[in-house]
Design goal:
mainly alpha, 2 domains, 149 residues, 62% helix
Length: 149
């Protein structure tokens, strides 16, 4: 059966998925890519998935890599959820962003600037905290009041 030109354009290749799995600005894209990479059982895919299992900042992505590797017959250990900061010095990063805004800025302005200037940090913590992300970020923002950079 022949594919139409439109269907061919929509086909996602293994290379596309590997690129998406390594994209630091979107844990959702990494998660989807890790799940989709299970369609290719080859050494390159196993290497990428193992890297995501052992090194992704977002536990959901690590867990998906674990599940995908298990489905591919790999003998891997379930990842342990990391405790503490995902980024070394995240408090200083957030404080610098807060200090760069006018003193009467809102939480929403702070959140938007974090997203614009440090999408890697924003994305990792959003993926890690899930539904609790906004509360965590607002609590952290509030606690930065009066601190020096």
């Amino acid at each position: 059966m022949e594919h139409t030109e439109l269907e061919q354009e929509k086909e996602i290749t293994q290379e596309d998925l590997i690129a998406a799995a390594n994209r630091t600005s979107s844990w959702r894209e990494r998660l989807n890519a890790v799940q989709e990479l299970g369609k290719w059982d080859n050494p390159r895919t196993i290497t990428v998935l193992t890297h995501k299992l052992n090194g992704d900042l977002v536990y959901r992505v690590q867990e998906a890599a674990y599940q995908t590797l298990r489905e591919l017959g790999q003998d891997v250990q379930r990842p342990a959820k990391k405790k503490g900061e995902l980024f070394k010095g995240v408090g200083k990063i957030l404080l610098r962003i807060k200090k760069s805004l006018p003193s009467d800025h809102s939480f929403e302005e702070f959140k938007e600037k974090l997203k614009r200037t440090r999408l890697d940090v924003y994305d990792a913590y959003e993926g890690d905290k899930g539904d609790d992300f906004d509360k965590w970020l607002e609590d952290t923002w509030s606690s930065l009041a009066g601190k020096k950079a």
